[in-house]
């Protein structure tokens, strides 16, 4: 049975451990999670791919080990910043909420996962399949030091994945892809008093930005996702106010829908830019593919069933931003994301999580683990 008092204390203890990323050091919080898992009777392993970037993995045995379920929250948080009413690492309770950095993203979800597993172990309730618990580093900076190497190197081989990194009991079944790319423009220097003698790279970059923002991409409308978006994140150029800038570069964040292809998008941009005769180069730094799973998939249906009678609603939604579900696509591992944080609260000053949501989230997750895979196991037996 879920122990509410224990759950609250656990969430507070997790929040009080600073694991800001950047700079990125999950050692202390990983040590705490590992110790907690040991006291539960499991055998955790601490795995690191970079110094100070600890990940923690443990297996809760099920009736079968052939089709394991991965459950993964993350250990790191964004920096706390300033201006908090309550200390960002106080874990203070006020008005039925626990305050602190990571309360919603993602230490509240971490506490839920640990409490759900502990409750099942105490009740000697075996899940249908092994449950792989994986608490990862570096999610807030791209997961290159956490989940990605686990998947790429085959260190975890789940049949299914449940990512605990969402809000309000939503079930995330679709996600936009992203392209991060840099456009570099080359001009020609001249004295600022005679701009006609040079080629101003900043002005040319502004022209390219204007063209880019007006581009129309072919896409199919998606019921859970908004149309593609473009954001100019940074721009740098020139040397001095009285010198015509001979160089400028800007970085672009482009989000695209399932059914669209990143390379075709980049090629279309290059073709349009080339018509201007501006000297430019485009270099992609990161491409993540969009993701979508059938809303009738057992992962989704089991989560819906698990919430009945516990929460008023558990909506199927899409994610405009990047979550780690996309990393499972290349390994053909079905994945969805859910979570129990307060909507719009992640990364904010005075971040909080509602205590009742943690309690109900633990009940939902425990029930999900109990029912997921049962029908499949019966059929195989």
In short:
By secondary structure, the protein is α+β, with helices and mostly antiparallel strands. The protein has helices at about 5-15, 25-40, 105-120, 145-150, 200-215, 260-275, 300-305, 355-370, 375-380; strands spanning about 45-50, 55-60, 65-70, 95, 95-100, 130-135, 160-165, 170-175, 175-185, 230-235, 245-255, 280-290, 290, 315-320, 335-340, 350-355. Helices cover about 30% and strands about 25% of the residues.
What does it look like?
The chain is of the alpha+beta class and 381 residues long. The chain folds into 2 domains: 4-175 and 291-380, Aminopeptidase (3-Layer(aba) Sandwich); 177-288, 2-Layer Sandwich (Alpha-Beta Plaits). Helices cover 29% and strands 24% of the residues. The chain is built from 9 helices and 16 strands. It has helices spanning 4-15, 27-39, 103-122, 147-152, 201-214, 262-274, 298-307, 355-371, 374-380; strands at 45-48, 54-60, 64-72, 93-94, 97-99, 129-135, 160-164, 171-175, 177-186, 229-237, 247-256, 280-288, 291-292, 316-319, 335-338, 352-354. Strands 1, 2, 3, 6, 7, 8, 13, 14 and 15 form a 9-stranded mixed beta sheet that branches. Strand 4 (93-94) and strand 5 (97-99) form a beta hairpin. The model is unreliable at 377-381 (pLDDT under 50).
């Amino acid at each position: 049975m879920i122990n509410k008092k224990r759950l609250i204390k656990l969430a507070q203890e997790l929040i009080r451990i600073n694991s800001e990323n950047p700079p990125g050091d999950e050692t202390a919080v990983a040590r705490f999670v590992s110790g907690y898992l040991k006291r539960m009777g499991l055998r955790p392993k601490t795995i690191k791919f970079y110094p100070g970037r600890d990940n923690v993995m443990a297996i809760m045995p099920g009736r079968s080990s052939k089709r394991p379920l991965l459950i993964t929250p993350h250990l790191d948080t964004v920096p706390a910043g300033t201006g908090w009413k309550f200390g960002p690492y106080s874990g203070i309770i006020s008005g039925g909420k626990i305050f602190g950095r990571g309360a919603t993203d993602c230490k509240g979800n971490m506490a839920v996962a640990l409490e759900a597993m502990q409750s099942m172990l105490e009740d000697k309730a075996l899940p249908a399949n092994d449950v792989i618990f994986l608490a990862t580093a570096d999610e807030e900076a791209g997961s290159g030091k956490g989940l990605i190497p686990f998947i790429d190197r085959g260190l975890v081989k789940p049949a299914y994945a449940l990512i605990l990194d969402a809000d309000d009991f939503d079930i995330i079944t679709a996600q936009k892809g992203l392209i991060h790319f840099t456009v570099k423009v080359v001009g020609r220097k001249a004295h600022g008093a005679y701009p006609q003698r040079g080629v101003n790279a900043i002005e040319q970059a502004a022209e390219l930005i204007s063209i880019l923002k007006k581009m129309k991409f072919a896409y199919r409308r998606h019921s859970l996702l908004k149309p593609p978006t473009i954001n100019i994140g940074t721009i740098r150029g020139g040397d001095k106010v009285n010198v015509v800038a001979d160089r400028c570069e800007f970085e672009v964040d482009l989000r695209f829908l399932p059914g669209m292809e990143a390379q075709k998008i980049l090629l279309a941009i290059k073709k349009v830019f080339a018509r201007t005769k501006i000297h430019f180069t485009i270099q992609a730094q990161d491409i993540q593919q969009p993701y979508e799973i059938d809303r009738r998939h057992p992962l989704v249906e089991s989560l819906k069933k698990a919430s009945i009678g516990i929460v008023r609603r558990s909506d199927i939604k899409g994610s405009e931003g990047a979550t780690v579900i996309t990393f499972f696509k290349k390994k053909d591992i079905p994945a969805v994301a859910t979570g129990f944080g307060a909507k719009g609260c992640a990364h904010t000053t005075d971040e909080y999580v509602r205590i009742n949501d943690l309690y109900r989230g633990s009940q939902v997750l425990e029930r999900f683990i109990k029912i997921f895979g049962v029908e499949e196991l019966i059929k195989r037996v």
